[in-house]
């Protein structure tokens, strides 16, 4: 066997030719043939051994998102492949090019209820952009090339099911069809640079001429087009509203941006979209339709490299199908400068007030600590080129608003799939791609405990990922959703606490516990300096609401219903919210801005004392550190 070139050897060699240098996976009897080919090439392709196949697929997504290159993952047959499914879905919804290879039972036993006999390709049918069974050793090169090319072109998951017997078979065994002439497939691939027709660009410029209230909505497709976006904003006097997946397309301290939008967004972003008379969408299909301008309110130019996406969320007057940077470069010389700067100035004034409000919320000394505090503290300890991975939960709100992404930083999270437990795998993928950069995961205790085993992957592969876990012993976001969207008491959301410090130490890594706001920055700094992976456990207030920038009447009514209906610890929740709003009376950007200052001060101290008394009588099962 030693001298035979197997079908797996051919497959892995082909991946190397495609420039793949890292694969994420977990072996099994359904994929051992591939493992041997990887073993023989370990000097050319590194293998990151995860503890759960979902993490392999999600790490491949993280790798792809932060490098723009193909992420590759593998699993054994059915159970391993099933574990990968959510990662493939993530790749589809997040637009990440990945290739997943799964084992499959012996080719001549498929469909006989044999061990792990499942048509894994059928299972992946709804998620994969390319999905094939390898039908013989001779088809490996053809399908690998097409799978890689399709994943990169469509920015989605390709999948190959590899029957066990073929994996270890001689690459030239079996019958080769005479027309399957070897050497006729290629790894040559160059992504095109697309620019719309000149007439379409002219039409866009004409549409925007004379508009004085233009807003720009930028998303993941605008990443890498930061300079052009800022020039567009300058030319049109237009604030740039960022969909969360486009958080790193321009820095948060840019004078042109109003930051994020939707539930986790800022008030100036909401104002900009509510008041604009023209909208330029650049690389975004932001799904929160209620935050777009109302139909008929604003004319719209949309730039997207996928024509099917244009007009998906908002009516479009001039569709511009092209790449963000190239299209903007072609469009900019055609645009008149908008000399009326009032709309941009209003956004900039609004952001001054908003940042002051964020600072106020993030520097509170309250105990238990407010979850905004650790997110804000990160700004002190992040490197200029840090990679930050977020997660699903109330943690999304804190990272969206409190963490200021600077020019060379990168940020992503599972923003359209909204999967929990994507943060750590994305971090693994990012750190594997960039061993020298600081990689920080900002996550919740629900997400982290979902894939906790893979912290050991960081230890095993010396990936110095730093994890900040907001420990509130509850599935915080769902608790608030149950109350604010449905008016129901929270149910089934609290979690038995875990001592993450002991856990990290048991893994042979660093663990730090923080509960006092004043100690946050130093604790984080120590963890960032540590030469290895670390978990920073921050005990936070489970009753801090992820307040939308503008609170709607229906939300207040529902919350009131939920409290009336018997939400646990309702007195504390209500009192804490009243106190929070009163404390923000001096900020126009806060819902509390309507309350007269003098009244607010007195009322806040009364509410504060009442909150402290109420907390003493709470059911403390869900308190941090319990
Ligand atoms: C895989 C998956 N399961 C469930 C959900 C629904 N969900 C979204 S956020 C969330 C709670 C997250 O809790 P945690 O990680 O503790 O963060 P917190 O909200 O407390 O900040 C849940 C259950 C989801 N998005 N993904
Ligand atoms: Mg939580």
Question: Helices and strands in order, then pairings?
Answer:
Blueprint: H1 7-17, E1 22-25, H2 32-40, E2 46-49, H3 53-67, E3 71-75, H4 78-94, E4 98-104, H5 120-123, E5 130-133, H6 140-154, E6 157-163, H7 164-167, H8 198-208, E7 214-218, H9 226-236, E8 240-242, E9 257-260, H10 267-275, E10 278-282, E11 299-304, E12 318-321, H11 324-331, H12 342-362, H13 372-381, E13 387-389, H14 394-402, E14 410-412, H15 423-433, E15 439-444, H16 445-450, H17 455-460, E16 466-471, H18 476-484, H19 500-506, E17 510-514, H20 520-529, E18 534-539, H21 553-564, H22 570-583, H23 597-616
Parallel strand pairs: 1-2, 1-3, 3-4, 4-6, 5-6, 7-8, 7-10, 8-9, 10-11, 11-12, 13-14, 13-15, 15-16, 16-18, 17-18
Helix pairs in contact: 1-2, 1-6, 3-4, 3-15, 10-12, 12-13, 13-20, 18-21, 22-23
This protein binds thiamine diphosphate (TPP) and magnesium ion.
């Amino acid at each position: 066997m030693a001298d035979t070139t197997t079908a797996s050897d051919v497959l892995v060699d082909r991946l190397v030719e495609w420039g793949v240098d890292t694969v994420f996976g977990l072996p099994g009897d359904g994929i051992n043939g591939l493992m041997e080919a990887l073993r023989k090439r370990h000097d050319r392709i590194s293998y990151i051994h995860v503890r759960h196949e979902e993490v392999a697929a999600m790490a491949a997504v993280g790798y792809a998102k932060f490098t723009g290159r193909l992420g590759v993952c593998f699993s054994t047959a059915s159970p391993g492949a099933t574990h990968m499914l959510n990662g493939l879905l993530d790749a589809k919804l997040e637009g990440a090019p990945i290739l997943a290879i799964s084992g499959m039972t012996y080719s001549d036993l498929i469909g006989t209820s044999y061990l792990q006999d499942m048509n894994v390709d059928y299972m992946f049918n709804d998620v994969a952009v390319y999905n094939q069974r390898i039908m013989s050793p001779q088809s490996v090169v053809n399908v690998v090339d097409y799978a890689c090319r399709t994943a990169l072109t469509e920015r989605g998951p390709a999948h190959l099911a590899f029957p066990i017997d073929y994996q270890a078979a001689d690459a030239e065994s079996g019958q080769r069809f005479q027309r399957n002439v070897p050497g006729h497939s290629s790894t040559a691939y160059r992504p095109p640079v697309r620019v719309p027709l000149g007439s379409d660009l002219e039409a866009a410029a004409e549409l925007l001429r004379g508009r004085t209230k233009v807003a720009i909505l930028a998303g993941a497709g605008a990443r890498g087009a930061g300079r052009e976006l800022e020039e567009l904003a300058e030319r049109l006097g237009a604030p740039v509203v960022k969909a969360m997946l486009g958080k790193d397309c321009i820095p948060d301290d840019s004078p042109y941006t109003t930051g994020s939008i939707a539930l986790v967004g800022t008030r100036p972003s909401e104002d900009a979209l509510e008041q604009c008379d023209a909208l330029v969408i650049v690389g975004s299909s932001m799904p929160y339709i209620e935050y777009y301008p109302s139909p008929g309110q604003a004319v719209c130019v949309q730039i997207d490299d996928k024509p099917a996406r244009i007009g998906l969320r908002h009516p479009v007057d001039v569709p511009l199908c092209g790449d963000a940077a190239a299209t903007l470069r072609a469009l900019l010389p055609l645009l008149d400068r908008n000399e009326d700067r009032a709309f941009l100035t209003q956004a900039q004034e609004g952001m001054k007030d908003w940042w002051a409000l964020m600072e106020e919320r993030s520097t509170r000394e309250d105990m238990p600590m407010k979850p905004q505090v650790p997110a804000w503290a990160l700004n002190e300890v992040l490197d200029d080129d840090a990679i930050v991975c977020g997660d699903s939960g109330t943690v999304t709100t804190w990272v969206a608003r409190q963490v200021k992404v600077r020019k060379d930083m990168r940020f992503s999270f599972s923003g359209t799939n909204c999967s929990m437990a994507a943060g750590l795998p994305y971090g693994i993928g990012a750190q594997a791609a960039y061993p020298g950069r600081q990689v920080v995961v900002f996550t919740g205790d629900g997400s982290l405990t979902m894939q906790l085993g893979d912290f050991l992957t960081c230890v095993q592969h010396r990936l110095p990922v730093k994890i900040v876990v907001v420990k509130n012993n509850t599935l915080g976001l769902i608790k608030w959703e149950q109350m604010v969207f449905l008016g129901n008491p929270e149910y089934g959301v609290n979690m038995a606490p875990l001592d993450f410090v002991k856990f990290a130490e048991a893994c042979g890594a660093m663990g730090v516990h923080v509960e006092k706001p004043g100690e946050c920055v130093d604790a984080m700094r120590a963890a960032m300096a540590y030469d290895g992976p670390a978990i920073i456990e921050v005990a936070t207030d489970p009753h801090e609401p992820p307040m939308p920038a503008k609170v709607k009447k229906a939300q207040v009514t529902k919350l009131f219903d939920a409290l009336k209906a018997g939400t646990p610890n309702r007195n504390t929740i209500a009192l804490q919210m009243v106190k929070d709003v009163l404390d923000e009376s001096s900020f126009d950007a806060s819902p509390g801005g309507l309350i007269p200052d003098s009244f607010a001060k007195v009322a806040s101290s009364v509410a504060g004392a009442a909150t402290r008394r109420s907390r003493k009588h709470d059911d403390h099962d869900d308190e941090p550190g319990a």
